[in-house]
Amino acid sequence: MSNLKKILTRIGLVAVIIFFAFPFVWLVSSSVKTVAETLSIPPTLVPENFQWNNFVSAWNSGPFLQFLINSILVTFGVLVLQVITVVPAAYAFARYEFTGKKILWAITLITLMIPLQLIFLPVFLQLSSWGILDSLWGLILPFASGAFGIFMLRQTFMQVPNEILDAARLDKASELKIVWKIMMPLSKPTIITMLLFTFISRWNDYFWPLVMTTTENARTLPVGVAMLRTSETGVDWNIVMAANVILVIPILIVYFFAQKRIIQAFTYTGVK
Amino acid sequence: MRKHQITPYIFIAPAILVFSVFYIYPLMYMGYLSFHSWNFISVEKPFVGLDNYIRIFSDPIFYETVWNTLKYAFFTVALIVIIAIPLAIWLNQKGRIFTAAQGAVFSPHIISLVSVSMIWMWIMDVDYGLLNWIVSLFGVKSVGWLTNPNVAMYSLIFVSVWKSLGYYTLIIIAALQSIPKDLYEAAAIDKASKWRVFSKITFPMLTPTIFFISIIALINSIQVFETIDIMTGGGPINSTTTLVYYIYEEGFNNFHLGTASAAGMVLLFILMLLTILYFKVLSNRVHYQ
């Protein structure tokens, strides 16, 4: 009885894994087929001849080098700016009493609740009036700080014992030095969590670069890849899947090495 | 507390600047635009009172849009809650294969929605998609998963459940692990049945989390855009047009910035109600732990 149960559990687990992982297998399998083989019935799982050239074709089907550079610049630009703006703000909210603190905290919390899907239109108009529409600035600046990061880090900073800070202040350490040399190292897990979360959501983002760009100049990889689905000559699914493999692989590699941290980063609380 | 009272303002200024310029001000500007008529090009933005609101509320497509959004949100949230709870309880065990299953279930969540949408678009292709081939093995004629107006919405719901189920499942697993062990030990001493343990311990202890994920899932699904833009473009015949997609179309394709903003204010109202609920639950949840 318990043996049968064990086997059934195993089968169930394998089924669950297949259900969630198989589409990725299908993605990779389709990406190395010929066009003819993608259209064959019955479909094949392992391609007859691996068409590694598909990745070259996908890469050359648009200015993908530009898209990749844009993606990297946007993602890392946001990460750097977030560290610069989020860490000191979280410290001030956690460790200072000052006039207007309540109002400034309220602004932060309100920001936390405003999804970009709600305000993209007025932001678009604003960026356009500044003349930075269709530029990387339009993709970086709105994310230059993060209310969620401030919220998370503030809680971590509040747990640092006062004695450590007092000792540093007796040594005449500047406030900025306290933030960088004491608070940051003590809060490393929270900061890594925040950065992983930001990295993945910026790298994957489709909505914002789609809305804020009008030409290929500032488009990022997800937008470039998504454009391949519409073509006058019909969609070559092998090429489209090859482009998606290029988009997915970096994230899957990061996931493989930092699975625990990533899951923690996302399930910390409900903000997507 | 500290004497250099200028320091906190300097520390907070950059963040508040970003929030004011890119979140708070645009929100107010959207409210302003919703009472004005503008096509993006003209110099004048005449005040039109409630005209934009009257116009969207007399537009049958807008009602269809709101209905689609609610339908999408309802089914997505219901399926997630119904599946995630038993899945989490089942996967919350020690052992390599359970860890692997948790990792697999979560993996779609970190993949770009672009790739998720395009993979499923290919699998759901009418003529050459894998899904129609599988269905044909059971003698069913090919289904227009994304091209049949009666089916397309459910295909999108399926894809979003597939993508985000792991996220919610792992939140529940984290909640399960924080339930005090002695409750289960006490139940074991009393020789309580499995169902009794679930209905008297596990479920009540999970209620705040279940409520919490329902609201997040609801807030997230009401803002759906990417899957729709990529997989169906709002079609066939508007059957998958949702609120954000409507705002996008009104603003960027029809240049009706006033009505688009009014629709945005409707979305804001819905989200505000849900957010108030969210914070109520959040405070309860913190209390629970």
From TrEMBL, chain A:
Main localization, broad class: membrane
Name used for this protein in its record: Carbohydrate ABC transporter permease
Location of the ABC transmembrane type-1 domain: 68-258
InterPro entries in UniProt: MetI-like, MetI-like_sf
Matches recorded under Gene3D superfamilies: MetI-like
Transmembrane annotation, as ranges: 7-28, 67-91, 103-124, 136-157, 178-200, 237-258
Compartments, as annotated in UniProt: Cell membrane
Species name: Cytobacillus citreus
Keywords: Cell membrane, Membrane, Transmembrane, Transmembrane helix, Transport
CDD domains: TM_PBP2
UniProtKB/TrEMBL annotation, chain B:
A Pfam family the protein falls into: BPD_transp_1
Regions crossing the membrane: 7-25, 72-91, 103-123, 151-176, 197-219, 255-279
Keywords: Cell membrane, Membrane, Transmembrane, Transmembrane helix, Transport
InterPro entries the UniProt entry points to: ABC_transporter_permease, MetI-like, MetI-like_sf
Keyword Cell membrane listed: yes
Subcellular location: Cell membrane
Membrane topology: Multi-pass membrane protein
Domain ABC transmembrane type-1: 66-278
UniProt keyword Ribonucleoprotein, yes or no: no
Main localization of the protein described in the UniProt heading: membrane
Domain of life: Bacteria
Family: Belongs to the binding-protein-dependent transport system permease family.
PANTHER family: ABC TRANSPORTER PERMEASE PROTEIN, INNER MEMBRANE ABC TRANSPORTER PERMEASE PROTEIN YCJO
Name this polypeptide is given: Sugar ABC transporter permease
